[in-house]
Amino acid sequence: MKSYVVFLAVALLLTVSGCSQSPESGIEKANLDTSVRPQDNLYRFVNGTWLDNTVIPADKSNYGAFSELFEQSELNLRTIIEESAYAEEKPEGSELQQVGDFYLSFMDSVRVEEIGIEPLQEELDRIKSGSSKEDLVRLMGYFVQIGVQNPFYYYINQDQKQSDQYIGYIGQSGLGLPDRDYYFKDDQKFQDFRNKYVRYMKDLLVLAGEDQADHKALRMLQLETDLARGHWTRVENRDRDKTYNKYSINELEELTPGFSWKIYLAEA
What we know:
single chain; disordered N terminus; mainly alpha; 13 helices
């Protein structure tokens, strides 16, 4: 009987405690602009105070809730990685040891300077050994495997107009600058971007021990400019119908007779 009474007392206490705690709202009321009626401008009503008080950081072109989430995720990842790197006990072969050692090898700038581009030599030799269009196609397929950017990207995802099946997607890529506007607009800021980009590529070529770095950097910019000339604008790329062009492999082969998609996909 006493046990039953105690049970009822505890249950009653928990019930009362639960009732006394009001659930927290997920709405950030501090961000609201209550001077605006929601039926007049819902976006301003919901975000007005946040918009007035938030400054876009100097190193970013935009900023919002997803930017904050991304930054927090990066901070969390860095914490995990650094804790793995400097942990006192790292069992051999464990994820802790692998992540930590990988990070420390990346941070060892002295060792990086010592070995230079030696770790890349096999890939560079593979590039230089090509002598035909077929070799180039194979190389581009191989680049997909190792995460090197091609003049176009390729990935597998759900069919946008038949979601119960997966298909391969091909889209424009291959530019080091954000989009085609950076190659063709004559505003001073875009000219500055291009000049700095050429200097950056020249510096990389010098570090790699290449001769005629200035000339090669300019040729690289010209190559990307030629690629950008065939790119669609951002507005065009938002057109779901225009960007949905379904082809079979054989149809692709007919569309681009100078590029073997069968070879490319076999290597990718």
